[in-house]
Design a protein that fits this description.
Helix 2 crosses helix 3. A hairpin with a 4-residue loop joins strand 6 and strand 7. The chain has a single domain, classed as Aminohydrolase, N-terminal nucleophile (Ntn) domain (Glutamine Phosphoribosylpyrophosphate, subunit 1, domain 1), CATH 3.60.20.10. It contains 3 helices and 9 strands. The two termini are 27 Å apart. It is globular. The longest helix has 20 residues. The protein is an alpha+beta fold.
Length: 177
């Protein structure tokens, strides 16, 4: 069980202390390691429980040119098959992590085809600095949790609601859904 956290701010640079505070609330989800990344108005954090690639699977993870970054929670069941396909298309891997397979898969296929190809339980956020786009995705059954809240200035997301509690203005249940 890992935890992902993020802020997409449409007005200001992401505050590192705010991001770390949100991440700290998920320390039980990832006691093995934590990492943060900020590029002006987008910030990601990750809490890691090491399962696959214990040595080189730290997150946030980047492409070689550092233009694409990802935080990921879950397991991609068909990552070995996808990795083999991508290797045949001249992608070079530095890790044995399924997270890196998602990064390379995005580079090769784009977000829509990548999501069609992924089999597993997952939640991730991916930022493409060339396109200035953030993609937040879950598996089609929603097995891995991912919550978000939006206000006038930002979108906040996390694997658990407790990381978002300070962002709620009105703490009530929407019974309409």
């Amino acid at each position: 069980m890992c935890g992902i956290i993020g802020i997409i701010n449409n007005q200001d640079t992401v505050n590192i202390l705010e991001l770390k505070s949100m991440s700290d609330k998920l320390h039980l989800r990832g006691p093995d390691a934590s990492g943060t990344w900020i590029d002006n108005n987008v910030g990601f954090a990750h809490r890691r429980l090491s399962i696959i690639d214990l040595q080189t699977g730290d997150q946030p993870m980047y492409t070689d040119d550092e233009k694409i970054v990802i935080v990921f929670n879950g397991e991609i069941y068909n990552f070995k098959e996808l990795r083999s396909e991508l290797t045949k298309k001249n992608h070079i891997f530095k890790t044995t992590s399924d997270t890196e397979v998602i990064l390379k898969g995005y580079q090769e296929y784009g977000i829509d085809e990548l999501l069609e190809r992924l089999e597993g339980m997952f939640a991730f956020a991916l930022y493409d600095s060339d396109k200035k786009e953030v993609y937040i995705a879950r598996d089609k059954f929603g097995e891995k949790p991912l919550y978000y809240i939006e206000n006038d200035t930002a979108i906040y997301f996390a694997s658990e609601l407790k990381a978002l509690e300070s962002k709620f203005d009105n703490k009530c249940i929407d019974k309409k859904g």
